[in-house]
């Protein structure tokens, strides 16, 4: 399955080469590759059910999370059509952080 995800990511223009990348960069790449099909799928479902929500991948630096070090994390950002708020959903936590756009 991961081979298929990697191939889809590569065809979508993502750099999937692991040469010369740090461990943190490889972990971020793995997160992006695994989350991309999920985000595409949930957008298709949202559209089909007319939920008026759009999901996209976002990168959050350690500094944006209030840390002085660490790795950049991939999160899923949710925005309701016409709304002025955005939710960020982290993979490892079940709570969302909502902030005005």
Outline, from the CA principal axes? flat
State the share of residues found in helices, binned by percent: 25-40%
The H-and-E topology, N to C, reads as HHEEEE
> How big is the Rg?
15 Å
Q: Number of helical segments?
A: 2
Strand ordering within the main sheet? 1-2-3-4
- The CA-CA distance between the termini, in Å, is 35 Å
Structural class: alpha+beta
Low-confidence stretches: none
Main sheet?
A: 4 strands, antiparallel
The tally of strands reads: 4
In terms of DSSP E residues, the strand content is 25-35%
Mean pLDDT: 82
Descriptive notes:
The protein has 101 residues and is an alpha+beta fold. 36% of the residues lie in helices and 27% in strands. The protein is built from two helices and four strands; from the N terminus they run H-H-E-E-E-E. The chain has helices spanning 2-11, 23-48, and strands at 53-60, 73-80, 85-90, 96-100. Strands 1-2-3-4 form a four-stranded antiparallel beta sheet, covered by helices on one side. It is flat, with a radius of gyration of 15 Å. It starts with a helix and ends with a strand.
């Amino acid at each position: 399955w991961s081979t298929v995800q990697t191939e889809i990511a590569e065809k979508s223009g993502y750099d999937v080469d692991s040469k010369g990348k740090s461990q943190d960069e490889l972990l971020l790449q793995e997160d992006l590759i695994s989350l991309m099909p999920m985000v595409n799928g949930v957008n298709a479902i949202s559209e089909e059910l007319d939920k008026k929500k759009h999901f996209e991948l976002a990168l959050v630096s350690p500094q944006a999370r209030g840390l002085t070090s660490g790795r950049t994390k991939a999160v899923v950002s949710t925005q309701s059509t016409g709304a002025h708020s955005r939710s960020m959903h982290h993979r490892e936590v079940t709570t969302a952080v909502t902030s005005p756009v």
